[in-house]
Design a protein that fits this description.
alpha/beta; eight-stranded parallel beta barrel; two-stranded antiparallel ribbon; 9 helices; globular
Length: 278
């Protein structure tokens, strides 16, 4: 297992500068959201990518000892406005078409959030149809879709993600697992139960994972912090990860640049060093 990072945590930069900065921190790979991380090319609309551009970006990271392990998108995939939803789908499909040219096997997303967390059966049905369409595209290009559950989203729990996977049974859909995203104020004290449930339901489908930390404040708020600075049971998380998915890419979240060396070391200590002893 190797530790990577969300590329945009290092800023929105020209891609050559971004790749060099990633390498300077010693990260082996990145989750790259083009329109959040790359400043010298406008990726706000589909149509800019080509095999040559994708290869050039991937090769630039490779020069600095890193790869693109996941392409991220941050798109609302069951958007109720049909015109906007179509745009979001086409942007995601473009990533699927060119993912291999980046040297990347996975394009990932969380389902999206409606204001106020207002979800209907229709939203679920729309998301299922969208995922079916995206799965066909992923199968065509030989890449994976990484679906991530996140508290407050349409697919917000491990059980809901397991249900969506059963309704769209494509072998080209996998799971980006982030236990921190499954925790909330009302379940944090039972976090072990929720982490274990996630691996029980989804462990065999994990294709990448995220590493952030959470802390429950004195006034009852659950706050996201850098790995190693919170109260998540990282030993349990990493033990289960090694058991279910040895070698999986770990992508660090929620860290400021000043926190990255310590958080990277923390993850490596709890995962890579422990694995070496087994």
């Amino acid at each position: 297992m190797s530790v990577g990072v969300l590329a945009h945590l290092l800023g929105s930069l020209p891609y050559r500068d971004l790749a060099a900065k990633v390498g300077s921190f010693g990260f082996r790979h990145v989750q790259l959201a083009l329109w959040k991380a790359v400043s010298d090319i406008d990726f706000s609309k589909p149509g800019k990518l080509s095999p040559g551009l994708a290869q050039a970006i991937g090769e630039e990271f490779d020069k600095h000892g890193a790869s693109v392990s996941v392409l991220g998108c941050y798109l609302h995939m069951f958007e109720r406005n049909e015109e906007q939803r179509r745009v979001n789908i086409e942007r995601f499909k473009e990533l699927l078409r060119y993912a291999r040219d980046f040297g990347c096997p996975t394009v990932a997303f969380e389902t999206g959030v409606n204001p106020g967390g207002d979800y209907t059966d229709r939203d679920w049905a729309v998301m299922r149809l969208v995922l079916e369409e995206l799965a066909e595209e992923a199968e065509r290009w030989g890449v994976f879709i990484g679906l991530e559950a996140a508290h407050g989203h349409l697919v917000g729990t491990a059980a809901e993600l397991d249900r969506m996977l059963s309704e769209v049974p494509s072998s080209n859909i996998g799971v980006v697992l982030d236990p921190g995203n499954l925790l909330a104020e009302d379940n944090f004290e039972r976090q072990d139960e929720f982490i274990e449930e996630a691996f029980r339901l989804l462990g065999s489908r994990v294709i990448a994972c995220h590493a952030k930390d959470r802390i429950l404040t004195g006034d009852g708020r659950l706050v996201t912090v850098a790995p190693g600075r919170g109260q998540m049971n990282y030993k349990l998380y990493m033990d289960l990860l090694r058991r279910h998915k040895p070698g999986v890419h770990i992508i660090m979240e929620a860290a400021a640049e000043s926190e990255m060396p310590a958080s990277k070391s923390f993850i490596e200590t709890h995962c890579l060093a422990a694995a070496a002893k087994e």
